[in-house]
Amino acid sequence: MGRYQVGFVLLTELVPEKWGAAVGTSINLGYAAAYLYITLYYRYISRKSYPLFWAGLALNVFAVGATFLIPESGKWLVSVKQYKKARDSFEWIAKFNGVKNFKLNTFASELTENENANQNKKSILDRTASMAPKPIERDSLVGH
């Protein structure tokens, strides 16, 4: 079940956002249909479930091996602000897909984050400057 959920999340991240709900629904319907089919097949048609058992075991072994080869979701890494790992992930995916000379410098959220940090520093300096005592003007002392 856990592999299914991870695959579901990764697949819905890979499709365009407007298709995410439709793809997710289709995946869930396919999963439910397969579960129902297998249940009915072994209830009414055949009692020999060993081939399905061995096929499932082979798929589990393959999934465990693939877990060590597949990179973390770049979209997730960007969302948790792990930009270096996200760049590495996208570069691995590009290399796997045969894209040459792929270079990813910065993400939009990374730029926004840096701009916000610079604005915060600037606003702190502005607030600090506004709290400093004002110099006394010389003309205001004359005549007193």
Describe this structure in words.
With 144 residues, the protein is mostly helical. The chain has two domains: 2-70, no CATH class; 73-132, no CATH class. It has seven helices and no strands. It has helices at residues 2-14, 20-45, 50-67, 74-79, 83-96, 108-131, 138-141. α1 (2-14) packs antiparallel against α2. The protein is elongated, with a radius of gyration of 29 Å. The N and C termini lie far apart (86 Å).
Task: Produce a short descriptive summary.
It contains 7 helices and no strands. The chain has helices spanning 2-14, 20-45, 50-67, 74-79, 83-96, 108-131, 138-141.
How would a crystallographer describe the biggest sheet?
Answer: none
Distance between the termini: 86 Å
Number of strands: 0
Runs with pLDDT <50, length 5+? none
As a percent range, the share of strand residues is under 5%
Give average pLDDT, whole number: 77
Key features of this structure:
mainly alpha; 144 residues; 7 helices; 2 domains; 73% helix
Give the topology.
Blueprint: H1 2-14, H2 20-45, H3 50-67, H4 74-79, H5 83-96, H6 108-131, H7 138-141
Helix pairs in contact: 1-2
